[in-house]
Structures are given as C-alpha cells and as structure tokens.
C-alpha cells in the first residue's frame, strides 16, 4: 500500500467540476468526457478550446466561424505594444505574458459577465502575439505585424517566432501539445484562478493569478527546468550517472512524478511519441536518447514516471523554440482550461475560503515596545 504524505490538500475534494477527470484509475484523462488520446489524435487545439469553453464539440459551421473569429483577434492595441516595448529586454517571457494579459485587461476590460467567452477567445488568440511582438522588438529591433494568415494558433505561434511558414510536422506537434496542456481539473494554477474568480473578481485578474501560479517549477515551470536538466548532459551515460547522483543528494528530477496520477501520465506517452517523430525528422537523437535514459533511471531507482513536461522539453527544442518560451506556451493552452473553470465557478459560486489549523502560541500578555527583547 502506498502511504501518501499529508499536507498540500492532497486527496482533498475541494469542489465539483464537469470539465475534466484526471487519473481515475491512476492514469487516464478526459475533457468533458472525451479521452485525451482521441482529442490528441483527432481534434485541433481550437476544437479542444471550443469544447472546454462552450461545453460541446463544434459542428462544421461553428468550427469554421470560430477559427476565423480567432484569427481576427490577433492584433494588439497600440498602447499594449508601447508597454511591451518598455519592458526590459532581459524580462522572462512569463513576466511578459503576465504583464501583457494584465495590460489587455486595462485596454479592453470585462464590462459585463456575459462577455466572458469573448474575453477568453481574445486572450487565447492574442497571447502568442503579445509574447512574440515583445521578443522581436527586443531581440531583432523590429515591430512585427502580429496578424498572420495561418489558421491555427500553433501555426501562428511558429510563424511569428521564426518569421516563415512553419514546417507541417512542427505545426501538428505544437497543436497536439496545446491540446495536451489545455486542461487538468483542480491543478494548482486552475484552483488559484477559481479562488480569484470566487471573490467575484474579473476574468483578467483570475487568469493573471493562474499565470503566476503556473510559473513555479513544481508546476508549469517544470518544462523549462526539465530542458535545463537534459541540457546538462552530453550523452545518455552521463545522464545516468548525473541523475543517480542527484537522487543520492535527494534532489528533484524535474518533469517526473505527479500528485494525482499514480501509474502514468497519459499525456507523456503521446508527447514522447511526438518527440520521437521530431527526432527522426531532424535525424538528431541526442536529446531523445538522453531523455529516455533519464526515464529508465527514474523508473528503476524511484518508480517514478515522466509527466507531460518532460518530453515536451525535447519536442519544443526540436521545433526551434527557445527554452524561455516553454512555460508561456503552457499558458496559451491552459488559458482555455482556466477560463472554463472560471465560468464554472461563476455559474455556481460561493467564495472559496477554507480554514486553517492554528499552531501558533497561546494568547500572550501584551509587551510594550520598551520591554521587548
Ligand atoms: C504539468 C505539471 O504541472 S506536472 C508537474 C510538474 N512538476 C515537476 O515535474 C516537478 C518535479 N515533481 C515534483 O516535484 C512532484 O512529483 C510533484 C510536485 C509533481 C508532486 O508533488 P507531491 O504530490 O507532493 O509528491 P511527493 O512529494 O509526495 O512525492 C513522493 C515522494 O517522491 C519523491 N519525488 C516526487 N517527485 C520527484 C521527482 N521529480 N524527483 C525526485 N523525487 C521525487 C518525493 O521527494 C517524495 O519522496 P519522500 O517521500 O522521500 O519525501
Ligand atoms: O494536475 C497537476 O497537478 C499538474 C498538471 O499535470 C497539470 O496542471 O497539467
């Protein structure tokens, strides 16, 4: 029997949701009843976002209308472009996206609760524009046009990043990755966003809460941390030795383990296959072989499996995406899940306010300032 540690609200049911199931049998993930394997295989990220936000899969007419609506929402207000230009060149892109989302909330505030899905679409459609406008301004000294012809958000992101039409396999791989990252029940960032929504705050504040919570390396930041780990080794043998040493030192191996899954993370199996296809296409197996060896060591020594963040790292590198954009990509995808949860929270709201077990001192006599040690 596995004895789980106390704390961290582990195993606490903190509310109800109709949006996703995670790890029902130790593994397995569904969005609104659809298996993640089916969504990854057959749905684009836009279809998945629609499913999450609008509660059902779009029919053909709805889907065409949704895609063309999203493509028209990629431009940025002039004032927001000025703010992005003012941010330092060395800013981490997570700071850029957090600031960009917050600033968009000032230029285009949520005036009416009925508008929530409009704001959701706007945020998801323009997030890549925010990141890549800032990046090109500071890196290349150019003000890019953020409105590309590309239909998909994945293609739009890659086209803005590289300044050319994306490779088909790269676009498909990023699109699937966005679907895998879109939603995950009461993970830390979604729960944080729901707490903010529960106070009747606005959507931009709740999404900014989600971004701040996602960033940490125990959560979304693990994809960047996993890349740094893999980059630290030149060969699979070096990785084997290095990871074993880290385990002896009781260090965390980023991209492994999970609070809810106990058998495996189904998203990782899909991402691993994507990383393999990208390695084959590039005829460059170094990262994949190092990653596989780390996976073997973790299985052998700790019985721990990779989570979605681990093979995302090598896959993103093979698409030519800089490491500092890994967690921001997670943000683009997860905004769909966060906002689905914000809507669900609002539809049946009660402020989220748990209580704490007090462990501080008993009541004490007051000490005036002169008498204090
Ligand atoms: C998309 C996502 O956000 S997925 C999560 C991404 N995060 C990471 O990859 C960071 C690395 N992983 C971790 O830190 C953890 O596994 C978490 C945060 C995902 C889950 O945390 P918890 O549920 O609190 O795991 P918990 O601490 O109970 O782990 C049980 C044991 O396994 C160990 N363990 C868990 N993950 C790892 C890891 N990645 N490397 C080494 N040891 C680990 C813990 O140290 C603990 O050992 P102990 O009992 O001797 O103290
Ligand atoms: O569910 C979690 O705790 C973390 C995770 O995998 C995610 O948010 O995708």
TrEMBL record:
Catalyzed chemical reaction(s): oxaloacetate + acetyl-CoA + H2O = citrate + CoA + H(+)
InterPro entries documented for this protein: 2-MeCitrate/Citrate_synth_II, Citrate_synth-like_lrg_a-sub, Citrate_synth-like_sm_a-sub, Citrate_synthase, Citrate_synthase_AS, Citrate_synthase_bac-typ, Citrate_synthase_sf
One annotated GO molecular function: citrate synthase activity
Pfam family, one: Citrate_synt
One GO cellular component term noted in the UniProt record for this chain: cytoplasm
Pathway membership, UniProt: Carbohydrate metabolism; tricarboxylic acid cycle; isocitrate from oxaloacetate: step 1/2
Key words, A-Z: Acyltransferase, Transferase, Tricarboxylic acid cycle
Active site per database record: 258, 309
GO process annotations (BP): carbohydrate metabolic process; propionate metabolic process, methylcitrate cycle; tricarboxylic acid cycle
Domain of life where this protein originates: Bacteria
PANTHER family recorded: CITRATE SYNTHASE, CITRATE SYNTHASE-RELATED PROTEIN DDB_G0287281
Family: Belongs to the citrate synthase family.
Descriptive protein name: Citrate synthase
């Amino acid at each position: 029997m596995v004895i789980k540690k106390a704390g961290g609200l582990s195993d606490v049911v903190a509310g109800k949701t109709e949006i996703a199931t995670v790890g029902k049998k130790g593994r397995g993930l569904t969005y609104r009843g659809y298996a993640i394997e089916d969504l990854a295989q057959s749905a684009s990220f836009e279809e998945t976002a629609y499913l999450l936000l609008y509660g059902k899969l779009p029919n053909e007419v709805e889907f065409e209308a949704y895609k063309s609506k999203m493509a028209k929402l990629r431009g940025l207000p002039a004032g927001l472009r000025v703010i992005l230009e003012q941010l330092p060149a060395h800013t981490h892109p997570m700071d850029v996206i957090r600031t960009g989302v917050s600033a968009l909330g000032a230029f285009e505030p949520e005036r009416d609760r009925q508008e929530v899905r409009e704001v959701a679409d706007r945020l998801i459609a323009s997030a890549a524009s925010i990141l890549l406008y800032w990046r090109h301004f500071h890196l290349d000294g150019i003000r890019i046009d953020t409105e590309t012809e590309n239909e998909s958000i994945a293609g739009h992101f890659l086209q803005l990043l590289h300044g050319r039409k994306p490779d088909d396999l790269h676009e498909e791989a990023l699109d699937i990755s966005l679907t895998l990252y879109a939603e995950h029940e009461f993970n830390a960032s979604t729960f944080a966003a729901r707490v903010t929504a529960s106070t009747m705050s606005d959507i931009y504040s709740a999404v900014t809460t989600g971004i701040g919570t996602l960033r940490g390396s125990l959560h979304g930041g693990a994809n960047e941390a996993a890349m740094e780990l893999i980059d630290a080794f030149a060969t699979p043998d070096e990785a084997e030795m290095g990871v074993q040493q880290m385990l002896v030192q009781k260090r965390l191996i980023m991209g492994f383990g999970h609070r809810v899954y106990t058998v495996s993370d189904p998203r990782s199996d899909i991402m691993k296959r994507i990383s393999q296809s990208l390695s084959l296409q590039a005829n460059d197996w170094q990262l994949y072989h190092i990653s596989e060896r780390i996976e073997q060591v973790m299985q052998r020594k700790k019985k721990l499996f990779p989570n979605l963040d681990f093979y995302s790292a090598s896959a993103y590198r093979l698409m030519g995406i800089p490491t500092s954009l890994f967690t921001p990509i997670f943000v683009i995808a997860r905004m769909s899940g966060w906002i689905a949860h914000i809507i669900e929270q609002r539809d049946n709201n009660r402020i989220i306010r748990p209580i704490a077990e007090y462990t501080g001192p008993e009541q004490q006599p007051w000490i005036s300032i002169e008498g204090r040690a």
